[in-house]
Amino acid sequence: MSKTTNTVYLNGQFLPIEQASISVMDRGFLFGDGVYEVVPVFGNKLLRPEGHLKRLQNSLDRISLDNPHTVTEWQAVFANLLDHNPGDDRAIYLQISRGAYARRDLRANQDCAPTIFAMVLHVTPPDIDVLSAGISVITVDDFRWNACDIKSTSLVANVMLKQQAADAGVDDAILIREDHVTEGTASNIFLIRDGVLITPPTGHQLLPGITRDLVIEIAKNNAIIVEEREIKEIELQDADEIWMTSSTREIAPVINLNGQAVGRGVAGSVWKRMMDLYQQYKQHLRDNEAVPPE
Ligand SMILES: Cc1ncc(COP(=O)(O)O)c(C=O)c1O
């Protein structure tokens, strides 16, 4: 995020960020009792808003919180925010917490209005040259809970795991549960072996990334074989390529894992091809109303 946003959405109102405030009793603040989404915007077009709103609904259902808005209402909020905060590449951040109760109480059975917040993030799109240079990662123990499919605002475990990577002097971490790969600290993991694209299946152990879906779709439409299956930790050592995908980082090639080169130690040829296709997809989104997957 490079610029400060000005107009934000809070509980039905659009107002300057300086005037947006919530109660210290808000359960989002006290417990991390809430969920969120980040929707990339290219030009003036949202990337897969229906996928993000579906995932939002899933997160809300999982924590038994009603969706405060219909899809049409959300779309109106997004459009209004984008109008108020012009720019090229941006992202919509939205978060819903269970609201503020009178007493600090873990029980979530009181009738209380949720806190609904959204803002525009001014993002700098990843520079292809910088991305091509690749990133270094370590593997760390995935000690998180068994509900990682919820895009929860309780992110302290992810903060700790990301810090482990920073303390080790690397860019990020691949999370290992028992003997298999789950995801990154804020991304999904892909591996290339003999030309096949492999990624762990969705479930309670990882967030179903919208970028993950898109990468799988692009691969399938371009004759790249995709396998959604468990990846053993040991398989990372023999991978020709490893990628980390997310809305903000797009597709980052991992060139070094635990101090060892991945493949030839440079961004691989399948990554280059996928990155081209992904950029074409973004350009198509910018230029057109309806976006057929490519
Ligand atoms: C834990 C985790 N996994 C995966 C992702 C990737 O999801 P998406 O591609 O929708 O950004 C994220 C994104 O923030 C994340 O936090």
What does this structure look like?
This protein starts with 6 loop residues before the first strand and ends in a 7-residue tail after the last helix. Strands 7, 8, 9, 10, 11, 12, 13, 14 and 15 form a 9-stranded mixed beta sheet that branches. By secondary structure, it is an alpha+beta fold. Helices cover 28% and strands 28% of the residues. The chain has 2 domains: 116 residues, Aminotransferase class 4, branched-chain amino acid transferase, N-terminal domain (D-amino Acid Aminotransferase, Chain A, domain 1, 2-Layer Sandwich); 160 residues, Alpha-Beta Barrel (D-amino Acid Aminotransferase, Chain A, domain 2), CATH 3.20.10.10. Bound molecules: pyridoxal-5'-phosphate. The site of pyridoxal-5'-phosphate (PLP) has 12 residues, from α6 and β13.
Number of E strands: 15
Q: How many helical stretches?
A: 7
Quickly give the CATH architecture of the largest domain.
Alpha-Beta Barrel
Q: What order do the helices and strands follow?
A: EEHEEHHEEHEHEEEEHEEEEH
Shape: globular
Task: Give the CA-CA distance, first to last residue.
Answer: 29 Å
Largest sheet descriptor:
9 strands, mixed
Q: What is the SS-derived class?
A: alpha+beta
Percent helix, as a range, is 25-40%
Overall pLDDT = 95
Broad CATH class of the largest domain = Alpha Beta
What multimeric state do the chains show?
A: single chain
Q: Can you tell me the CATH topology of the largest domain? A: D-amino Acid Aminotransferase, Chain A, domain 2
Uncertain runs with pLDDT below 50, 5 residues or more? Answer: 290-294
Molecules bound to protein: pyridoxal-5'-phosphate
The CATH homology group name of the largest domain: D-amino Acid Aminotransferase, subunit A, domain 2
Overall number of structural domains: 2
| Gyration radius over CA | 20 Å
The share of residues in extended strands comes to: 25-35%
